[in-house]
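Annex B. Sample input.
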Amino acid sequence: MKITIRESGKTETLSILDPDGTDFAVEFIRSTGALDDGQFDYEEESGTWTCSQDTYNKWAQVIRDNELLDTRLPALNRKYGTKTVNKVIGAAGNCRPEDFARTINSALDEAFGKQ
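Annex B, continued. Sample output.
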């Protein structure tokens, strides 16, 4: 997802790759409603999205949080068992989609330490 930062005109990228190498950052962010609520604007001529530096920073962190969760869950499941890990995840409570990974990572840190 090509991003132009409004304040600086700098070009950045937000990317989430699935195991096949397909980038689904646009779909992920769209699923939260952030492409429709004014956080991003699409520039058809350039094929890029524009947003503020704060919005870019927020979504870059959301993506990092999700990548961390994706990499740590298999190891925690092997070490503590899927049932135990899922119990911690289930107890973490409801949150906005963009806060999900951060919330779950915090709950996992509390339950099992930072691993």
